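Pasting as-is:
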Amino acid sequence: MALTGIQIFKLLPKTNCKECGVPTCLAFAMNLASGKAELDSCPYVSDEAREKLAEASAPPIRPVVLGAGVRKATVGGETVLYRHEKTFYNPTALAALITSDTAEGDVAAKIKKWNAFQFERVGLNLRPELVALKDVNGDAAAFAQLAKLIAETSEFNLVLMSDSVDVLKAGAEACAFKRPLLYAATDSTVDALGALAKEMDLPLAVKADSVEALVPLTTKLTEMGLKDLILDAGSRDVKGALDDQVAMRRAALKDLKREVGFSTITFPCEMASNLDMETLIAGQFIAKYAGIVVLSDFEGDSLFPLLLERLNIFTDPQRPMTVTEGIFEINNPDENSPVLVTTNFALTYFIVSGEIEASKVPAWLLIKDSEGLSVLTAWAAGKFAGDDVGMFVKKSGIMDKVKHTELIIPGYAAAIAGDVEEELPGWTITVGPREAAHLPGFLRGR
């Protein structure tokens, strides 16, 4: 039976050493209880406590780190079936396929193109993480050469795919610094690939013809000391693959079946004949419940909606997305440029700043911390009150940057104008439009 956070805390050393990555032993205990941490992260736990905490210390779905560098990704670690129950933590990693018979020049061109696929959205840089290099001819030297080329000329991390242990070993040695995922151990290669993954400390994918057939393979690998596993139940039709994803997630979370308590990899590239259909299938697997999705290619009109879907699903619904409080310069403002103020809800900031930028009018935009609430919600909750806004303007430093004394407030917060004027004697408080779309006309017409 799983232990509560307080029960776990009583068994910890209570040193608050922070070496586990969180500030206190109590916080670490709560993470253990919710399946978001592992007991191995605590260097001082006693053997007796370790034995008692064995059940509580392992997340139902093990988090696995893929790759290294700026595109390093963690998959797995989820603790709920449905996002509304709590939240989903580790986004599905997106991969595109390159075959080992592709000419180096073509690979370089693909990588250059794929590197450019980075989209800014609400202050975040959205981009794919992986390249799946698939062996098609058993040429270990050529496979290793391409693996090295991809690893050294891009930020992408790699999934190395082959039926041959020798080919995978050559590829892994060529790009070991990127900590590639080895795909995949089967009934015939589980011992050899397990030994290779353990020797090189690499994550390992496991493939079988069904969920049930995965169990003896994962059992054998965990008994060998391997923990970083990724599962492929083998189905390449959409319905069968979806059924497998749901079955494994339910078995891990509801029935606590450790044998399938790992993240998964899916292959829309093998389930459709064109990228458009692959994209639709990939969208399904991002929602339920793939850790890695492999496409045949990256194209902007396919990749961007998948990245947005991923962002929406894996953004904590209990935590508003925010931008930093402060002064933002738009269109190179000077001392005579207008000053506007709004809340720090990320979507509000990006819509407002985008409309100001589109107006071509130089302006100063003040962003006040409203705990991530939009203007109307923040005003209703008392987080965007007139006296608070006035105090913020005084402290922001904007008075040192402009000669005039006019502040433009959002139309939805018109009710605070009087209180702002009281807090800022001598200032003119102008009520702007309610909708951001009307800002360009409003600013140009002043």
